[in-house]
Amino acid sequence: MAISIPPPQWDDPEASTPGVAVLAGGCFWCTEAVYLALEGVKKVVSGYSGGAQATAHYRTVCSGTTGHAEAIEITFDPALLTYGRLLQVFFGVAHDPTQLNRQGNDVGTQYRSAIFACNPAQLQMAKNYVDELNAAKVFRQPIVTELTMLETFYPAEDYHQDYARRNPDQPYICAVALPKVEKLQQTFPQFLRKE
């Protein structure tokens, strides 16, 4: 059963400037697939955030010891899509924000729920929204999403980019990514790309 996720009570225009957001919600293949389906998204890059450049490599990040989270950098058009809408999809479709250091069978700090704010307005808006959702008891458990300022985002290796679209028959994509896209289509059809 789908959870109804209300939009943030205040969608701060400053949070949508300069049209970049960095979110971590488990495997970046899955979150990338969700955000690429949204009207107003110009580009999504899979990568790593929260650790050092020297360890921003898939095999090393998979060890769970680097401090990185698998994240996506979303470039969007603020005239078509707000930061608040990105957060609404993040909490409502892209992942389960109540799971600590995991998403389903993907376990480790690299799969943690995190918002890496690109400016102070994004950080404040994310904090306010988490408080709103927790106060409304939208989820059965408290939200454990890490909220922090972005230090650096490191793009992942080329073969990770646009992975779900290029590998639609891969078993993990079929089992995890595609159901998230279907949930997006059912929950927020008004947000979908018109093409």
From TrEMBL:
Its EC number is 1.8.4.11. The keyword Oxidoreductase applies. It is an enzyme of class 1 (oxidoreductase). Keywords: Oxidoreductase. This is Peptide-methionine (S)-S-oxide reductase MsrA. It comes from Acidithiobacillus montserratensis.
